[in-house]
Design a protein that fits this description.
The chain is mostly helical. The chain has helices at 2-23, 26-81, 85-158, 162-194, 207-233, 238-251.
Length: 253
């Protein structure tokens, strides 16, 4: 049972792969890959912008700490000048804490600066790759389009394409039907000439009977023609002879 299911699954996968392969357009795939690379480049650029923003914030904080540290140092000097050693000690203590914070911020700033440099290099390299891919993509698309057009032209000339194949089949069917009708007409003519097919108007008579009847009709025509010629030889037509005979019959008592 498991082997049957495996075979069915294999058939479905092969059918799906064939359908996907037929539906896939390399130009669309290339465009999709280019869009994804652009999206990745945009993410890298946004990350670089975020790192640069964080670095600038740290720089502002470091500047503020330096200003506060300088102010505390001035306050400590003023306190000593006023004889307030305790106040000067407090100012210097706070100044020391600010300097520690400044050192920590400086370390973070250095890390962000190194990260920013890495992202800048990565962004430049990725941008160069995307541009190179775009150029290659357009070249491949143009080559594929030209090859597709050439293939369609060759298929049209050779009759391999689906459209030209339909036209070719229609022409073949028309030629076959024409040849069949011509052969049928020739065969019927031949059968009629040999008498194999009887004329429906001849009431079932064969060719000999028809020929004898034709000879008899010809003989009757010749006989009638000879009689008419004989009448003309006696001195006129039957109408003229009759008109001449009527006055003679009136003179009799």
């Amino acid at each position: 049972m498991s082997s049957v299911m495996q075979r069915i699954a294999l058939i479905f996968r092969s059918k799906a792969n064939t359908a996907l392969d037929a539906a896939e357009d390399p130009r669309e795939t290339l465009d999709y890959s280019y869009v994804k690379q652009q999206e990745l480049l945009q993410k890298v650029r946004r990350g670089l912008a975020d790192v640069a923003t964080s670095r600038k914030r740290l720089e502002l904080q470091i500047q503020q700490l330096e200003q506060q540290s300088s102010k505390l140092e001035q306050q400590a000097q003023q306190a000593l000048a006023a004889g307030r050693e305790d106040l000067a000690r407090e100012a210097l203590t706070r100044r020391s804490a600010l300097q520690q914070q400044g050192s920590d911020l400086a370390a973070q700033h250095a890390n962000l600066q190194r990260e920013e440099e890495k992202l800048t290099t990565a962004s430049q390299r990725l941008q160069a790759k995307v541009e190179a891919f775009r150029t290659r993509k357009e070249s491949l698309k143009a080559t594929y389009t030209a090859a597709e057009a050439q293939t369609k032209i060759n298929e049209a000339f050779s009759g391999v394409s689906e459209e030209m194949g339909d036209v070719g089949l229609a022409i073949e069917r028309a030629e076959d039907k024409t040849a069949q009708m011509q052969a049928r007409a020739s065969a019927v003519d031949e059968l009629i000439a040999t008498g194999a097919l009887n004329d429906p108007m001849s009431s079932g008579k064969d060719d000999i009977s028809r020929e004898l009847e034709q000879m008899a009709a010809t003989s009757d025509v010749e006989t009638e023609l000879a009689r008419m010629k004989g009448q003309l030889g006696t001195g006129g037509t039957p109408a003229q002879i009759e008109s001449q005979a009527e006055p003679a019959r009136e003179d009799k008592p």
